[in-house]
Amino acid sequence: MRRVLVTGASGMLGSELLLSVPRGVTAIGSDLREGTGVAAVGFDLADRARVDELFRLHGPFDGVIHAAAWTAVDLAEERAADAARANVDATRELARAAAAVGAPLVVVSTDFVFDGSGQRPYHVDDATNPLSVYGRTKLAGEVAAREAHPAGARIVRTQWLYGPRGKHFPGTILGLAKDRSELKVVHDQIGSPTSTLELAPALWDVLARGEPGIYHAACDGQASWFDLAVATLELSGVRHVKVVPCTTSEFPRPAARPRYSVLDCSRLTALRGAPLAPWRVALQRFLAL
């Protein structure tokens, strides 16, 4: 595998994918910001003609990692058509183009495809039931990819992402801690905080060695947002801020969140020979950068 298209290259995950490219691979990032020193191209991925042009002008591609997405969860509730264009139409067109050239495709998806009513980590074949526009469009994107490229689509669901670039929860907590002595944080939503530093290499492995189908990829273990906030401050040496647990109902949002969305990552672990790092270890590595 020598030439790979990475979409969403200016985002939190896409940028890390470009910084963890395996030896011998040339990555072409779409929609990357200027000034990063990495080859980049900009195309409307929901436009069939433009996707064909992308593959014609910048290919041939031996693989595609589709990290671009509409990720504004609450805004998607009022802009459903825009979310669908980004999460469904673009995914379908990339899958179609990848299938035409026989290139494997990795589509990054989300724990929001589940409703959170489970009491054990979700398996890749568990029933889906998204609660939000975001979750529904991401699930529809999964279906579109597998229908358009059944022999090559790999769906990788992940969750609670943070990393060196972009906006994320640990960064928000540290920012608020500069001006406040007390923070209220939700304690009744449970998932697995996941560092892009851990996830990006795993996506490259799925592209190179994974079979078509669904994978779950998240850091090992589980936590609440409250747990993550406490750990972020503790590991950063911030002692003056008190973190107070609160319920989801105390902070209503336009889009419903799954209450419990821990993912069973055993298929990915079998592929790679080891799970992603425990979430607290991964957080410590990130904060030490």
Q: Could you explain the architecture of this structure?
A:
It contains 9 helices and 13 strands. With 289 residues, the chain is of the alpha/beta class. The chain has a single domain (3-167, 194-218, 257-277), classed as NAD(P)-binding Rossmann-like Domain (Rossmann fold, 3-Layer(aba) Sandwich), CATH 3.40.50. A 7-stranded parallel β-sheet has the order 3-2-1-4-5-6-11, sandwiched between helices. A two-stranded parallel sheet has the order 7-10. Mean pLDDT is 94; it is low at 32-40.
Q: Could you tell me the strand content as a percent range?
A: 15-25%
Distance between the termini: 30 Å
- What low-confidence regions span 5 or more consecutive residues with pLDDT below 50? 32-40
* Helical run tally: 9
Q: Return the string of H and E elements.
A: EHEEHEHEHEEHEEEHEEHEHH
According to CATH, what is the class? Alpha Beta
Assign the CATH superfamily: NAD(P)-binding Rossmann-like Domain
Outline? globular
Secondary-structure-derived class: alpha/beta
Portion in helices: 25-40%
User: What is the CATH-assigned architecture?
Assistant: 3-Layer(aba) Sandwich
